[in-house]
Design a protein that fits this description.
This protein is an alpha+beta fold. It is 32% helix and 22% strand. Strand 3 (149-155) and strand 4 form a beta hairpin. Helix 2 packs antiparallel against helix 3. It is elongated, with a radius of gyration of 23 Å.
């Protein structure tokens, strides 16, 4: 079960009508106390990431308006997810999509199921929160916009090349965990809900569970292609399997009622 996110205003100790200066002051005050390099509390890193996440949303006018309207961008909050994507800055980087496949028995495809999907993905480095550098970046830095990362686009004959490096103005030391990339490779596992009646060759989309591209980016999506196996030829097996599924469903219902 996904953890419940605290209200961003509560995280920074602010009223919902706080102005930009109050948001900035609250973040700087709390960030100094909870920075992992100075705080002894074992939860300092998680608390600092929470502060940075809250400040990253509330300090930007468009993101704050979306947050005030839709709330936390959790999985399944389609309205906020789509609104944020439509309102994204033109220069925002976006992680690549990931494509995987699963196989379902015909009965599973007919009645729907939940399946654990494991895959390799590029995720945001926890040590530097995707910035690629250590230390606390300046939220008002004119070079990196407070991300701690400088993006340079070089035009080539066949394409544009995006280069990302630690901001030379406010941070300069690369993160040792990710080598300055802001991302690391990791295995991910999600519980995928397959709707009833899914067809062979269908493609299911899980928004935001693709590759990450570091701080200030929007994660790509996960696309799951479904292969439905042909039903067994023996009709007796089909009836037996249907009976087993019915018994399991009734037993689950009885336990739920109790």
């Amino acid at each position: 079960m996904a953890a419940v996110k605290r209200d961003y205003y509560e995280v920074l100790g602010l009223a919902r009508d706080a102005d930009a200066d109050a948001i900035k002051r609250a973040f700087h005050s709390l960030a100094r106390d909870w920075h992992p390099d100075v705080a002894d509390d074992p939860d300092a890193e998680a608390r600092f990431r929470e502060l940075a996440e809250a400040y990253g949303v509330l300090s930007k006018r468009e993101a704050r308006l979306l947050y005030d309207r839709y709330g936390y961008r959790g999985r399944g909050n389609q309205g906020f997810d789509e609104a944020l994507w439509e309102a994204r800055p033109a220069v925002a980087a976006r992680g690549e999509n990931i494509y995987v496949g699963i196989e379902l028995r015909s009965l599973e495809a007919l009645g729907g199921t939940r399946q654990i999907v494991s895959y390799d993905a590029v995720v945001r480095c926890k040590a530097c929160m995707g910035r690629g550098s250590v230390g606390l970046p300046d939220p008002e830095c004119e070079y990196c916009g407070g991300t701690g990362r400088k993006r340079t686009v070089s035009s080539l004959e066949v394409a544009n090349l995006l280069q990302i490096e630690p901001c030379p103005a406010c941070v300069a030391e690369a993160c040792s965990q990710c080598g300055g990339e802001g991302t690391v490779s990791a295995e991910r596992r999600i519980r995928l809900l397959v709707p009833p009646g899914v067809q062979d060759g269908s493609q299911l989309r899980v928004g935001g569970d693709g590759n990450d591209a570091g701080a200030g980016s929007i994660p790509g999506d996960l696309f799951v292609r479904v292969k439905v196996l042909p039903p067994p030829r023996d009709s007796r097996f089909v009836r037996y399997a249907a009976l087993v599924l019915l018994i399991v469903a009734i037993a689950t219902l009885v336990l739920y009622i109790r």
